[in-house]
Amino acid sequence: MLNFIKLLIILCLMLTLAATALLAQTPTETPPLPGKAPSLTVPQIREMTLPNGLKVVVVPRRDIPLVTVSLLVKTGASYEDDKKAGVANMTAELLTKGTEFRTATDIASQIEFLGGSIESGANWNSSGVTVNVMSDTLGKALSIMSDVVIRPAFPAKEIALLKKQTVDGLNVSLKQPGTVLSYVASRYSFDEHTTVGTPQTVQRILRNDILEFHREQYQPDNSVLIFTGDISEKQAFGFARLFFSSWQKIEVGKEIIADIVDATNLSGLSMPDKKPPTINRMLVVDLPNSGQAAVGYTKRFYEGRIICGEENCESSEIYYPANVLNSVLGGGYSSRLNQEIRLKRGLSYGAGSGFDWRGFDTNFSARTQTKNESAAEVADLIKIEIEKLINDSVLDVELVPRKAVVTGGFGLGLQTNEGLAARLRDIYLFNLNPDELNSYLNNVNKVTDMDIKAFATANLSGGDVIIVGDSKLFMADLKKRFPNQKIETIKASDLDLNSATLRKR
What we know:
By secondary structure, this protein is an alpha+beta fold. Helices cover 41% and strands 18% of the residues. The strands form three sheets. It has a six-stranded mixed beta sheet with strand order 1-2-6-3-5-4, with helices on both faces. The longest helix is centred in the first third of the chain and has 24 residues. The protein starts with a helix and ends in a 14-residue tail after the last strand. About 8% of the residues have low confidence.
C-alpha cells in the first residue's frame, strides 16, 4: 500500500510538471476585438403641442404592457437663489407629498394599488416627475400625476419634515470624505452650489420660496410630456389633452430661457497656444480620524452638451470624443483608472471618472477613495493617466472595446421604457433633433484616437487636485511626490461650503 501511495504521488508530480511545461510553451493570446456593432433604430417619435404650450412626445412599444410617462421641466437648481440652494430639489420632492385633492398617503396608496410607481426630483439642469404603470391602469395613474404637477399643496408639515430629513442627512454625510470632496469641488472647481444645498441653505428655505419656484418654473411651455411603452399615438395625445390641457401658463414677468452663456471664442478641440500644467491647484481638506481619504481631479471647461445656431441646436464637437475618452479613462471596471488603482495595486474598491454636462459648459471629475496613507500615490496615478491621454495615442486594441462599452451601454439603456424616456429627456432638454438617437452609435464609432488626444489636450490640463482625509498620514508623501506644487490646506472644521473662499470668516 505504501509503495502504491508513493507511485501515485510521483505520477501526480509528473502530470503537474508536464502541464506546467505545456503552458509555458503556449504563447499568450491577445483577446479578439469585439465584432461589428449591431445597428440600432429607435421607433418613430411622434410629437404634438397642446394650446397651452406643453409639448407631448410619444414612442410606442407594444411588446410589453407597461408604460412610462415622464414630465420634463426644463429648469432645475441652476435657477435657484444661491443662498437658498436646494429649493428646486425640495419643490420636486414635495410634489408627491400632497395636492389640493390628495394627501401624501392617498398618493402613495393609490399608486401602489395600481401596481405602479411615481418619482420626482431635480438636478442642475431640470426637474420632473415620472410614472411607471401597467398600460390598462394608465388613465388612473395620469390623474394622480397631473394632480401632483398642476395642483401641489406643499403642506407646511411636509415641508418641515423634508427640511429636517434633508438637514439631518447632510449633517451625517458631510462627515464622510467623499461627500465633502463633492461639495468642495462644486465651490472650488465648478463655481456652483450643489443641487441638494447645505444645512444652512436648506434651513433658510420658506414655503413661499417653494411656491414661487413652482409657479415660475413649472409652466406648460417650459415642459415636455414623454410617453414610452404600450400606448398608441392617439391614446397618448388623448390622455395629454384630458389631464394636462387645464395646466395654464402663468405670466411671471420674466422669460424662461435656457441656462446659456456666451460661447463665442471658447475652446473646443483647438490646441492651446501654451500647454498648461496638468495640475493648476492642489487643495487638502484635513479631516482628522477619517477612515479613508477621497482623492479627486476636477476641472470645469467652457464648452458643453450643445452648440446652437439661429434655428436649432446640435451636439457639440466635444460631446462624443469626451464620452469615448471617459470610457477609456474611468468609465467602468476595465477602464485605466480602475485597472491601475484597484486591480494592479489594490489601493481602492473602485476608481472612475465622469462628465456632468450643462448646455454650454461641463464639469469633469476623476475620483476614488483609498487609505489615507496611499492618498498621495493615488493622486499621482490619476495625474499620470490624464497625462497619458494628452501625450499618447489610444491604440485600437483598447479603443475599439472601449467604444463598444459606450455603444453597448447606450443600446442597453434603450431596451426599457424608462431608459428610452431618459434619453428622450436629454434630447428635449437641450433642444436637439430626436434623430440624434439613431445616429448615436455611428457618432461614437467615428471617434478616433486623434479626436481623444485633441480633446484631452484642449480640456483636461489645468485641473484641480482635491484630497479630503487625515492629512498627517499623507502630507509628507504628497509634498515628496509634488515638490513644485503649492498645496493649500483647510481644516474640515473651518470649511464654509456656502462661501466661494470655502473658509469661515
